[in-house]
């Protein structure tokens, strides 16, 4: 069974911007046990609205009898700094003021999030990670971390993500934040500020997460008589309502901004030079119908990371193929491990 933990960092934490958090905590989930050599660690990085319980959203990859079986592996995943699933975020109490941060929570970059992860890693005493795996925003975190700490990670599995967030991706994120800004409650310091705007933001996001073929397959109307109340319309409303029940607009805003900040080449002489620092044996997985992180972005990574492997997943689900096509992802990872064994 997954075990849930809290890591508390009681020192001042300086962000890339120069802003400071007086302290923070990370909520994290583990399953399985460390072996005697402490070399069976799998670290998972979650996506934008994910949580630390990887069995919730990647249950076909992690679990008994699955690719990563807890009897063989010690698996770790932490909710990101700024998150809303137990880690310090905008709804947390600022120990200096005794009040919730709300809009005063400082803006984060992916490098800040990764720095917090690494403090947790050190606290748990993990000097070597067998495999670091992440998808989407989590893929960005994994890549940044593999560059920051090249000797820690033996293998990197990077799914449906990129080396630098694209103008297309930033435009989608800003459009979603525009929707949040249009909500009059966004100007208030309350837990539910911007919640209606968040619903619209999520509906916008779905258009980048999915694909024309996916909507055509799942939301097409039967017959030819309908003139209103379309399935596709109600689906968009449903997706917005569903997220609003488990998330908040502050964290959505914060993490979408962190995603925008993603550029491994910043202050490192560009993307190509930054990728050259990676020592982990790397697998880059792309989804052929992904509109948000198109396959060209994974091809670029494969081109510039020495001795890396590229795998293509076929899906009608677009970017969300990384959540849906778990059988194909499992096969790609198994092949990656097998080929490494053959080489040795």
TrEMBL record:
Gene3D superfamilies reported in the protein's UniProt record: alpha/beta hydrolase
Q: Where, in this chain's numbering, is substrate bound?
A: 202, 320
Q: Name one GO molecular function term.
A: homoserine O-acetyltransferase activity
Q: Which residues form the AB hydrolase-1 domain?
A: 41-321
User: Is this entry keyworded Cytoplasm?
Assistant: yes
E.C. number(s) listed in UniProt = 2.3.1.31
Quote the Pfam families the UniProt record gives. Abhydrolase_1
Task: List the catalysed reactions.
Answer: L-homoserine + acetyl-CoA = O-acetyl-L-homoserine + CoA
Pathway(s) annotated for this protein in UniProt: Amino-acid biosynthesis; L-methionine biosynthesis via de novo pathway; O-acetyl-L-homoserine from L-homoserine: step 1/1
Tree of life domain: Bacteria
The broad enzyme category this protein falls into is: transferase
Active site residues of this protein: 136, 290, 319
**Role played:** Transfers an acetyl group from acetyl-CoA to L-homoserine, forming acetyl-L-homoserine.
Q: What does the subunit comment say?
A: Homodimer.
Family indicated by similarity: Belongs to the AB hydrolase superfamily. MetX family.
The protein's name: Homoserine O-acetyltransferase
Organism equals Pontibacter silvestris
Q: Which gene encodes it?
A: metX
